[in-house]
Design a protein that fits this description.
There is one protein chain. By secondary structure, the chain is mainly beta. The protein is built from 5 helices and 53 strands. A hairpin with a 4-residue loop joins strand 23 and strand 24. The protein starts with 5 loop residues before the first strand and ends with a helix. Pfam families: choice_anch_I, Phytase-like.
Length: 772
């Protein structure tokens, strides 16, 4: 069983090594990272299929529809997923990994009641096994197993499960199915002597075994494995294991090894139970133990601060998978008492920890710009899904982060020493991880659907075989303490005026403190090597909504700061140390006509006499200006005067959409701007770079002179080439000293977005901006 001894462990993230403590067992291990250069074979995303496209004819496209758990036909070509939100299962043709095709859905409401909800799915030969929650209430749980013929989508049998089911697993020899009957607790109920949502809450959960007799579903039979006594008392094995509340086990997730041993997690009870499938006998149980982890973000304050810690926190594992016939891996999502922000490998023979991720899983999120600071105080990355499979002789573990929208891939050929290989970006809430080794594929299904912000649930496909995967395009290196630099919301770019390979970016209001990042673009992925905190005139940490940055040849920076209202928009000049030295407000008449979409980009020119002219764009129209015309501002630093030019936007016909400018940079004798819509995913239409003439002097008084524009590059094909969710906020653009054109997307700090950042290398400026 798990001891309470605290053991020092090393967790590695990038080039950094940090010490942490793992409370739990005999020996926790070290996370081994692969080489900086990707190994010969990597997984690369081939397609992202939004499942709302697979909806029934006539259904409102904004209706919530998700993809939670999935399985695949024996030939690896038909994927079946559960859609709990819409009470149905869906079918996809994945014969072509780069072009999945919707095959429609099957409504569970038509097979039962309107509120019947699929919780998991598995494919056995010709049949799809769907476990369905039909519960009338928490105190009256019920469920069924629907057996669907894959070819006809007809139900051939329905089996009463006697309780509310969660997950299902099929044995390798296809002789058994195991179903966790959770009978979950009511988070708003208060048991006698307990707190709200506490355990125990009757009735107790159990495990159902289905004997899959070869003669067909009509002969299949159930066997129940109780996890309490007939009178509802605790089983001695669970008591001895230290299960939190053994009279209310609440089994969550099931997995079966090649010896037909079933392992089931009791998430709320922080334990694991092992069952012999042929006999249905409980062979052992153990506590998942607790962990104390240092070097993580534990305060939700808008700052990525990896100096926090958690102490003696229960792991509370969700998904579980056999690494081999001895070792078990768990994703320690947590529930109401715990969650340790990582995953663990247990020795099933002893119940002891063989390896624990410590802080390394959260560090992966930070290094890849996927850290969800909004969840810092509540379980962090929340590792929920986990799957293990062998591809070409290499055994991989896939661990999904529910809140940071990624899947981490590890080589677990040696179960006690996982080797980190890569991070795969996903759409929001990756729930189901489905390895398809026969085709070298991994499918990831996501449970979060947000039509209001245009980010929809999807099934993503990844193929093993690429030498260099498309993601990540940018990561962070370690800071002076060896901790990965926290970053996100890269809404602007500037070239370094002296070093041709360096770029600068800056954070916006997604974070409480403004920071400037130095990016080394020589490497692929590009690396954030340095962070410069920005300070206000008093020397205090600044919280600017910085939407534009320009590195001045004279030293320091200009920032374009957007305001919540027009008068709060301003240009800010920083010295080389990041301290505010000058604030330039918008003229009162311009500010009065702006809403919350103001400054979005800044650049500058310096003439032969040393006269500095700052150029800035406003994202949306000023109220007094013609519709569809936004302003490009010219600020003469020496004179302290503004003048304005007009820029005519494209038009959009999508309800609720608008188009605006989001960046400006100087390109020879022209100004280059980014013009984009508010749309993302398959709806995205306008992500373009245009150029206009660089005016030789200030604008003349009178109506805005609209500068004729010329299309330089449609960036949408490059964004779609990632095969992911097409990002909305193309917001940064610059031409580096090496002549290369770079653009970047703003990930909004992983809020109302997938969180993926795309740094695009668009080619030489002579090609992008040359005459066409």
């Amino acid at each position: 069983m798990t001891s309470k001894k605290s053991i020092p462990v090393l967790a590695v993230a990038g080039a950094a090594v940090a010490a942490l403590a793992i409370t739990g067992t005999a020996h926790a291990g070290q996370l081994h990272h692969g080489p900086t250069k990707p190994a010969a074979k990597s997984f690369d995303r081939t397609a992202t299929y939004p499942v709302f496209l697979n909806r029934p004819a006539g259904e409102d496209p904004a209706t919530e529809t998700v993809a939670e758990i999935s399985d695949v036909s024996e030939d690896g070509r038909t994927l079946v997923y559960t859609d709990a939100a819409a009470r149905r299962i869906g079918f996809l043709d994945i014969s072509r990994a780069n072009q999945p095709r919707g095959l429609g859905t099957l409504s569970l409401a038509q097979l039962g009641a309107a509120e019947d909800e699929p919780t998991s799915v598995a494919v056995v030969g010709r049949y799809v096994l769907v476990v369905v929650n039909t519960s009338a209430s928490y105190t009256d749980p019920s469920g069924r197993l629907d057996v669907i013929e894959l070819a006809t989508r007809k139900r051939v049998r329905s089996i009463d499960l006697g309780g509310q089911p969660d997950s299902i697993a099929i044995s390798h020899d296809q002789r058994y199915a195991a179903i966790a009957i959770e009978n979950e607790r009511d988070e708003e109920a208060t048991p006698p002597g307990g707190a709200e949502g506490d355990l125990p809450q009757a009735p107790a959960g159990f495990v159902q075994l289905v004997d899959l007799h070869g003669s067909g579903p009509h002969r299949w039979s159930l066997r129940t494995v109780p996890l309490t006594t007939a009178g509802g008392r605790a089983l001695p094995a669970l008591v001895a294991a230290g299960i939190v509340e053994p009279t209310d086990p609440e089994p969550e997730y099931v997995t079966i090894n090649r010896r037909n041993q079933l392992a089931v997690t009791l998430q709320e009870n922080n334990g694991v139970v092992l069952i012999d499938l042929p006999t249905g006998r409980i062979t052992s149980a153990f506590s998942a133990g607790t962990a104390s982890v240092r070097g993580i973000d534990t305060v939700e304050d808008g700052v990525i601060d990896l100096t926090g810690s958690i102490s003696e926190v229960p792991r509370e594992p969700d998904a579980i998978a056999w690494v081999d016939d001895r070792y078990l891996a768990t994703a320690n999502e947590g529930d109401w008492r715990g969650g340790t922000r990582g995953w663990t490998v247990f020795d099933s023979r002893t119940g002891r920890v063989a390896w624990d991720a410590g802080n390394s899983f959260e560090w992966l999120a930070v290094r890849h710009g996927l850290h969800n600071e909004d969840r810092a105080e509540n379980k962090g990355t929340e590792p929920e899904g986990l799957a293990i499979a062998e591809y070409g002789g290499t055994r991989y573990a896939f661990v999904g982060s529910e809140r940071s929208n990624f899947v981490a891939v590890y080589d677990v050929t040696k179960p006690t020493a996982p080797v980190f290989k890569q991070v795969l970006p996903a759409t929001n809430g990756p729930e189901g991880l489905l390895p398809i080794p026969s085709r070298g594929l991994l499918a990831v299904s996501s449970e979060t659907d947000e039509a209001g912000v245009g980010v929809r649930a999807a099934v993503s496909l990844y193929q093993l075989g690429k030498d260099t995967p498309g993601f990540p395009s940018i990561v962070s290196g370690p800071d002076a303490t060896g901790t990965p630099i926290g970053w996100g919301a890269l809404g602007a770019l500037s070239a370094d005026p002296r070093q041709p390979h360096l770029l600068y970016s800056v954070t916006d209001a997604a974070y409480a403190r403004t920071q400037i990042f130095t990016v080394d673009a020589r490497k692929s992925p590009a690396v954030i090597t340095r962070v410069l905190p920005v300070r206000d005139e008093r020397g205090e940490p600044a919280g600017y909504d910085a939407e534009g940055i320009f590195a001045r040849p004279q030293g320091g920076f200009w920032l374009a700061v957007e305001g919540a209202s027009g008068p709060e928009n301003k240009l800010v000049r920083l010295d080389a140390a990041g301290v505010t030295r000058q604030v330039v407000p918008l003229p009162a008449d311009v500010a009065a006509g702006l809403g919350k979409q103001g400054f979005e980009g800044v650049t500058a020119t310096t003439d032969k006499r040393g006269r500095e002219i700052v150029w800035a764009v406003l994202q949306r129209e000023v109220a007094t200006d013609p519709a569809g015309v936004v302003r490009i501002g010219r600020y003469d630093v020496a004179a302290g005067s503004w003048s304005w030019f007009g820029y005519r936007l494209e038009r959009t016909s999508v309800a609720g959409d608008w188009i605006g400018l989001s960046e400006i940079t100087v390109v020879g004798d022209r100004l280059a701007v980014i013009e984009r819509d508010k749309l993302n995913g398959p709806a995205a239409k306008i992500k373009r770079i245009y150029t206009v003439e660089l005016p030789a002097g200030p604008a003349t008084p009178g109506p805005l002179r609209v500068l004729p524009k010329r299309l330089a590059l449609d960036v949408l094909p490059a964004l779609r080439a990632t095969n992911g969710w097409t990002q909305e906020k193309l917001e940064g653009l610059t031409v580096a000293g090496n002549g290369q054109v770079y653009a970047v997307t703003d990930n909004d700090g992983v809020q109302d977005a997938t969180g993926e950042t795309v740094l695009l290398r668009l080619g030489p400026g002579t090609k992008v901006f040359g005459n066409r």
